[in-house]
């Protein structure tokens, strides 16, 4: 029996397999092939464990790949015919919501094992087709129809943030600089190049005040997690195990104009508060965090909403080095969406996979010392959906 058995209860949910593909432009791979690479790696790490159910996180397949019914397609292609399978869509929060559904099913005891797969394939389409697909995450009747895009939403909120808190124009650059520095040693990252503050400041605007380093590039990629109840895993492994200690999700208004406070992500705050409560922890207990940095303004607002930073001070955490690998709250430790690449609905699955690697002590050059508690939060729309997971290492490295 595993020497960690005394640390576990039968109802604990463990992440026993992780698979992640490089993020980039995979012209030679279809969406099913990308997913298969991640599924195969996760199952191999879990000793070939066969899942009873599969939850597929995806946002853009119907629009860009012409493929609905994705979960059944992937189950078939992965040699898992007969298992329960469903696709979960919550825009950029799809991955976190899919993990949440798997977690709930396992905690109920109805399932013993579950596979979560996040996958996006976007580079087969370009330009307006991709922009139109991304805009489906906004309110179609009142935003998308007027030509609003996610980056335009972020630009308006960022401008208000800089004005409201009297922050400098380059206030949010620290998030991008940190992300790019950490991506250098991540073989799965799209952009493995560090950037200096001067380069950030000189970068061209893509939607004023957002410059090219404030917005993450959308790309192809996949990740898979194999989750299992602790009561079926006696003797599974002598390496550090990782359990899901807290899990929660929440929503707020979808349309930006319906949100009560443009500078406060209510769903982020609510889901984090519930996750901390279920884990019986507080923000100060977290050793590493992966936040949603599709836009740098989202990273700052997330820090504030979850209770790490005071309102209006999220940007200072990046500017003052608090989020670096040796900082007070290491985050974006593999490059985040900005440098690793934004994989849309798969983001939450990749984030959790990256936190698992940190807690296992398997993060290589990017390893955060003595990381025991990790947090991952992904967002859908401009914070309209939020899924938060708190993970814990069982045993020692």
What's the CATH H-level superfamily name? Thiolase/Chalcone synthase
Q: Low-confidence runs (pLDDT<50, min 5 residues)?
A: none
Count of domain modules: 1
Helix vs. strand class: alpha/beta
Strand content: 15-25%
H-E string: EHEHHEHEHHHHEEEEHEHHHHEE
Q: Got a strand count?
A: 11
Question: How would you describe this protein?
Answer:
It is a single chain. This protein has 397 residues and is α/β, with parallel strands linked by helices. It has helices at 31-45, 61-65, 70-77, 94-108, 128-135, 150-164, 173-183, 197-202, 266-279, 296-305, 314-319, 336-340, 347-360, and strands spanning 13-20, 53-57, 84-88, 113-120, 205-207, 210-211, 221-229, 241-251, 288-290, 373-380, 385-394. The protein has a 5-stranded mixed beta sheet, sandwiched between helices. The longest helix is centred in the N-terminal third of the chain and has 15 residues, at 31-45. The two termini are 18 Å apart.
What structural keywords apply?
397 residues; alpha/beta; Peroxisomal Thiolase, Chain A, domain 1; 5-stranded mixed β-sheet; 4-stranded mixed β-sheet; 13 helices
Give me a quick take on this structure:
The chain is an alpha/beta fold and 397 residues long. The chain is built from 13 helices and 11 strands.
